[in-house]
Amino acid sequence: MKVQKTGLNQDCIQLLYFESMIPDITQEQLDGLKQRFQSGLLAAYKARIQILKQLKQSVFRNEAAIYDALKADLHKSKEESWVTEIGITIAEIDHAIRHLKQWMRPRRVATNLVNLPSASYLYPEPLGVVLIIAPWNYPFMLLLGPMVGALAAGNLVVVKPSEYAPATEKILGKIIQETALQQEILFAPGDGAVVVPAMMQSFRFDHVFFTGGTKVGKKIYEMAASKLVPVTLELGGKSPCIVEEDARVEVAARRIAVAKFSNAGQICIAPDYLLVHERIRERLVEAIKLNIRKFYGENPQQSGDYCRIINKSQFDRLNSYLKGGVLLHGGNSDERDLYIEPTLIKPESLSVPIMQEEIFGPILPVFSFSTKEEALAIVQQHPNPLAFYVFTSSSKKEEDWIQAIPAGTGCINNAAWQFTNAALPFGGRGDSGIGAAHGKFSFDRFTHYKAVMKTPAWFDPAIKYPPMKGKLSLYKKVIG
Question: For residue 216, what pLDDT is reported?
Answer without folding.
Answer: 95
